[in-house]
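[step 3/7] inverse_fold.run input=structure_tokens len=183
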């Protein structure tokens, strides 16, 4: 996948969620920026995430992110790689140690544009996060990377209790419950 394929997928992407559809055009516009896939684009850049679920669709794998101190899906920076599916897979493997990861669908599962707070030597900026759904064996041992404080398989019923109010994670959870491709 490259920026042409991503742009085409974004142009076809439809969602019933107003907060998600509000920023699709900004994702499309970003595909034409030569720095879109690099951290050096200080206004914002593409990232890729993996919404990892077990094969029975009862749990999702979340990480307690070391820098942000919040429970999130696994993912990270593209660092110049225009194949965001590969980025999501690579980040999921690196951050979890899982080898049983399978891509459920090569189409975009979810989009989220969110602000990343300022840190030393890094100004506040946006992540244009393209998300894909993966499944994994819930019984495979997890290996916590340096980017995480913890990793945990969370039952769908417990996600809200664990993360609090995070509309983008709640949206992915709802999509998982409703999606026909997952049955």
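[step 3/7] decode complete -> sequence:
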């Amino acid at each position: 996948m490259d920026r042409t394929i991503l742009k085409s997928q974004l142009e076809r992407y439809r969602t019933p969620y107003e907060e998600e559809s509000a920023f699709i055009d900004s994702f499309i516009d970003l595909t034409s920026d030569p720095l879109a896939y690099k951290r050096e684009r200080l206004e914002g850049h593409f990232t890729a995430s993996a919404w990892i679920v077990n094969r029975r669709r009862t749990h999702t794998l979340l990480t307690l992110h070391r820098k942000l101190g919040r429970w999130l899906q696994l993912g990270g920076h593209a660092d110049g790689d225009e194949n965001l599916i590969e980025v999501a897979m690579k980040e999921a493997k690196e951050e979890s140690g899982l080898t049983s990861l399978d891509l459920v669908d090569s189409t975009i599962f979810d989009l989220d544009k969110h602000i990343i707070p300022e840190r030393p030597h890094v100004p506040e900026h946006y992540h244009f996060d393209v998300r894909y759904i993966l499944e994994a064996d819930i019984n495979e041992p997890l290996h916590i990377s340096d980017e995480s404080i913890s990793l945990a398989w969370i039952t769908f019923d417990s996600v809200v209790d664990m993360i609090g109010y995070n509309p983008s994670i709640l949206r992915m959870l709802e999509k998982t419950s409703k999606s026909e491709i997952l049955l």
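[step 4/7] annotate
The radius of gyration is 15 Å.
The chain has a mean pLDDT of 92.
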